[in-house]
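Support request, please re-run this one:
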Amino acid sequence: MRKYFLPLLACIIFVACDSIQKSEGEKQETKAYSQQGNVFILYPDSTIKQLTFSGNDISPIYLEGRNSVVFVRSKQGDQSIIVVNDSTLSEGVLVQNVRGLKSIDASMDQNWVLFSDSANLKSVDISTSSNKDFGQVTDYILVKESQYADHLIILNIIQDKETRGLEFKLKDIDGSTKKEFSDAGNLKSFVNQNIPSVYSELEDKLMITQRKLAYLDSIHISKLRLNELDIQLAKAETDLLKAKKRLSKIYEFQIGRSYSEKERQINDQNKLIDFKTQVLEEVRLKHNTERKTYFDLERRLNSL
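Re-run finished. Output below.
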């Protein structure tokens, strides 16, 4: 029994030590986090340091090579991207007064901060604060490993007045296009072979982008219907107004008409007014229903 127990004990000790070493290795990473609108750093020795005190700071990213943290400061509807030194606590504004800021990310070389606003994907040089504009981008993935580290997988919805579609590109951090993909299948095949670590993320983002495209198609159709109903509504309102004016004239002019003839004309005109009123109400109902559909589609699109 003893000869089996000692090797087993040695194996258990080895596994436990290996687990402890891994846990200790994981603790070596310095992390930044936000709490109650302030930025903190958690060091490998478990000490914590508060870096900001504004109460408006979120989305911190620790830049180990620079001993700094980049974060977003929100104030009165505007957002700024700021970098703070973890030793001196001195702050520098990289980008200010950004509207509709969606996300920020740091390049692997820690020279650039990527951010997506309500219009375009952009980057800012941390050292010089110079900006680059990647143009309109529906979604993107910043690759952080493999030979394509610090490259961007771009997913974009392109549209004009009548048509919409998807385009897929691989760009470097300078904005130069390195590859273009004919369709989603082609892109997925490339990523699966060359950057498998982001394949799952790509599938999720593709699904959302395709849903956005479907909503845009539906919104376009709904908008066309609303335009048609606007014309119908204006016509129905005009027709009813004309019918009511005609009834007023029948009441005004009595010369040369018998009482029975006038009554017949009044009855006929009232029937016409009832009909025109019914048409107007039906058009209004269709218009209101389509308007609700339109805004519901926009709400769903904006929630993605």
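The chain is about 45% helix and 30% strand. The longest strand covers residues 151-159.
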